[in-house]
Amino acid sequence: MKIKLINNNSSELIIFLSGWGCDDIQFESMTSSKDVLICWDYTDLDFKFDFPGYKKYYLVAYSAGVFIAGILQEKFPELDKKIAINGNPLLVDVYFGIPADIRHIFKDLNLENYMDFRKNYLVYDDNELEYFNRHASQRTFESCFDEINALEQLAKINNKIMKFDCAILSDSDKIFIPAHQMEYFKGKYIILKNSAHNVFSYFRNFDDILNFVNNKD
Prior knowledge:
This protein is of the alpha/beta class and about 220 residues long. It has helices at about 65-70, 100-105, 115-120, 125-135, 140-155, 180-185, 205-215, and strands spanning about 1-5, 10-15, 35-40, 55-60, 80-85, 165-170, 190. It has a 7-stranded mixed β-sheet with strand order 1-3-2-4-5-6-7, with helices on both faces. Helix 6 (about 180-185) links the parallel strand 6 (about 165-170) and strand 7 (about 190).
C-alpha cells in the first residue's frame, strides 16, 4: 500500500482510502482545511503510519477502499466519522459486491478500450468525463491488474467488516448495483442523484464530503 500525508497544519485528520486503480495524483486537486492521509494501491496491505495526536479523525472510504477499511480498522485510531462512498464491505459478494462481469471488464482493459470504460462505467456525463480525464490516475495497467487480483484473493479470506456511519451512493453507479447498496446500508445512506461511480467532480474537496454528510444528519 502507498500513502501520502497532506499536511495543512490541522488538528484533525481525514484518512482517505481510495478505490481500485487510483493513485495520489488523481486527488491532488482535492483540498481540505484538515490534514489528509491518502491511501492507494492495495496489492499489499503493508500499512505503516504513526498517527500523531490529532483531536479528531475521519474516515472516507471510496469504492474498494470500503472493503479495505474492514481489514485495516484495528490499525486506525478511534474514528469520529466513518463514511463509505460507492463501495461495499463485501467486495466480491454475489449480491452486494462488484458483479463478476464488471471485474472481468477491469481485467480486459487496454489502451484501446480504457477511454470507453471511463465514459461508460465511471462518469455520468461528458462534463464529468472531462474533469475525470484532467484528474486521472497515472498507474499502469499491469499495476491495476495486480491489484484487482490481490483484492479478489483478500476477499476470499477476509471476514472483517467495518460498520460505517453513513454511505453516499450514486443513483447511476454501474460498478456496484445501487438497489443492492441501499439494501445493505439500510437507512444509513444518502443518494447522490444524477451521479455515477466516480463522484469527484461533484465533491471537489474533502471538506465538501464531510459537510454533505453532516448536513444530512
